[in-house]
Amino acid sequence: MIHTSHMSGLALAAGALCILGASPASAQAATNCSLRPAVSTERQTLTCEPGLSITVERGAHYRLADRNRNGRVDAIVLDNKAALIDVDSSHLKGGFEVVTPQAIAAVRGTRWAVDVHGDTTSVLVLRGRVAVNKVSTGQGVTLRQGQGVDADRGRSPLSVTQWRPSRINALMARLGQ
Question: Domains of the chain, with CATH numbers?
């Protein structure tokens, strides 16, 4: 049995997670993920088979997960900082999830960013739709392009907003976009 953080424990309750290390060697060997050559020390990009690309901010604490144990990444457990996920559903079947201490964001095919800062997880959709569920209440919302939500650990409801260009640009700059 793998002992993980509170949020990872919730993910385990939903289905078995095979947690994979975030090091380049283990990511490549265990999940068919490889690091793209770094053009910046501010972020790293993992290419995980056709249809899945994950860019993580420097210093992010994360683990790749293979929930169905088929050797392919189908989730990232993100504890802090930001990640940009690009999923092409025509190549990647079964969807993808980002699990954080405050929320779970899941898609079938889209491009979205997740930022964990302190006690808040922010989710922004750049293309497609993303379902976001708040861990503390189970409340869920669906976001569309340009929409975002901030999820905290409290009992307050999720509120979908159209993000201002300045907020989008600040997050995307951290991810090299």
Answer: 6-174 (2.60.120.1440)
